[in-house]
Amino acid sequence: MNKRCILFLLFILSINSYAQVFTWGYSYSGGNSSAVSSTLSSGVTQIVSNETAFAALKSDGSIVTWGDSSYGGDSSTVSGAIASNVVSITASYRAFAALKSDGSVVTWGDSSWGGNSSTVSSSISSGVSKVFSNGVSFAALKTDGSVVTWGTGNGGNSSSVTLSNIVNIFPNRGNAYTALKADGSFVSWGNSSFGGSTGNLNVTNVSTTTLGVIVGNLEAFTAIKNDGSVVTWGYSTSGGDSSAVSSELSSNVTKIIPSDAAFAALKSDGSVVTWGSTTYGSDSSSVASSLSSGVVEVVANGFAFAAITSDGSVITWGNSSYGSNSSSVANSITSGVVSVVANEYAFAAIKTDGSVVTWGNQYYGG
Fold first, then answer.
1. What would the DSSP string read from start to end of 203-272?
2. I need a surface site. Which of 9, 73, 111, 247 has the fewest CB within 10 A?
């Protein structure tokens, strides 16, 4: 599980010309940013967190870090390299990778989680267009369609597959990666039990232009094909086996939404199909009639789902301890909801009048 979701590591990035940052929470894990407060007082454009540290990208291309020194809060060993020309930051659970304007990548943090990239340093010194992480390793997509991986966790070693003509990479958390190729085929690597192997799947005709066509949860993947059908692989009970709903996934699927170990498919007719582990929200039978049409968006936390309908109401299902039971706020989410966001254990709905309604585990934002 991505522990970033269960720690009180909070910040506010002021949306104004100063872009000032405020932090609070457990001081060792980034709640106390006093040591770098002067550098966070203006110009911050992006903030990325891992389990216990933060990295902020500034408008001048420099990076400021704070939090657990072992996990990337201390970037002094690479301070010169990240003082300018950084364009984006990617985090694993315990390390960071900075992509620079010249196509090079700089890493720091826990070496076992991708903080040490010395074994591939020559390969990521130029030509990198984007960096991805599944939490325990990193994968760099290069402009020539090749991929470079590092880290000692699942996915850090991609020697078992041929990675060429790659156009996008989709990680699942902690276990594997799937790379989409220019011809609409895809290839996976990492833990073979949890999505790192596609087995005997038909691995062709996946859209190369639609974002999010391949989606991973903790232990499985799904892919939407050009004909609107869905293929799944990985740990069977976590969504890797969708045979029970295969007829419903044979066409018209437009989006897949993952919880930690289940999936929900939104179809073009506004209906929703779910599968995977019941503990993580696969059983939507109690609200099946409400999910047969009119759904415009689906959001998941780790254990439950929330669907926004065309009339602005919200329908919830999944684990009752973590957000499927919204009865305490039912009257507030029957209309006027424009968006829903989630952390690991709770939901928050934003309404047309600018108010916010929350539910789920009370200790984690519910």
1. ---B-SSSTTSEEE-SSEEEEEBTTS-EEEEESGGGTT--GGGTTTTSS-EEEEEE-SSEEEEEETTS-E
2. 247
